[in-house]
Amino acid sequence: MLSCWLQLVNHGIDSSFLEKLETEVQEFFNLPMKEKQKLWQRSGEFEGFGQVNIVSENQKLDWGDMFILTTEPIRSRKSHLFSKLPPPFRETLETYSSEVKSIAKILFAKMASVLEIKHEEMEDLFDDVWQSIKINYYPPCPQPDQVMGLTQHSDAAGLTILLQVNQVEGLQIKKDGKWVVVKPLRDALVVNVGEILEIITNGRYRSIEHRAVVNSEKERLSVAMFHSPGKETIIRPAKSLVDRQKQCLFKSMSTQEYFDAFFTQKLNGKSHLDLMRI
Description:
It comes from Arabidopsis thaliana (Mouse-ear cress). InterPro entries: DIOX_N, IPNS-like_FE2OG_OXY, IPNS-like_sf, Oxoglu/Fe-dep_dioxygenase_dom, Plant_2OG-oxidoreductases. This is 2-oxoglutarate (2OG) and Fe(II)-dependent oxygenase superfamily protein. By secondary structure, this protein is α+β, with helices and mostly antiparallel strands. It has one domain (2-276): Sandwich (Jelly Rolls). It contains nine helices and 15 strands. The strands form four sheets. It has a seven-stranded antiparallel beta sheet. Strands 6-12-8-9 form a four-stranded antiparallel beta sheet, with no helix packed on it. It has a two-stranded parallel sheet with strand order 1-11. A hairpin with a 2-residue loop joins β8 (171-175) and β9 (178-181).
């Protein structure tokens, strides 16, 4: 079993472009409330400004705000949200989406090669990749030890590529039962395996539990890009792996069904993935 996360530095995205993205992300979260309300989540949807994984009025909320948007495929975009994004930020987001998707596809191919998964199996899964962006904003908190910026969990997606925008520490991963700080590196992209890839690799690549803590004096921003098979694609352990291992560890389910179930639960470690185990 391979737990997989890394900080990617030689990724090919220009440093000046990342600076532009970081500036525009900061400006986006500094928009007046009147402008943000145009981008609010609609009832029953999770895209836009707001929160996710809320299942009870009595639930303790994380100390943060977020903006979520589907970026690929283009036909799945919420036009009422995209059309209201500030034009410079919309153009920057388009470029970043394309650049990061290319990186994700290279990584998927390399992971398949390492595990000797047939090339066409991985290509069929991620040819029509479902990509979404989640921008996280964690304001300063006078009592940071009393709150959590983002509850511990593993991502539902196949692969997450994260940019720690303003170099403020806060991301922690669980390693050997202990929480380890992922120190921000300038222009680095944090690559993290999610639950869907753990299913596809029949448990060979392990999804990583992580969380976000907050700072008493500084705000923190991050941009996460999630990459998964298309919504109607059936996710299951790769047949070429199952045939070699002589066992199948997970059930089959469409990507859309998997995410629908994920968002109806509170974040709680890898509890959602556990429901898929056979």
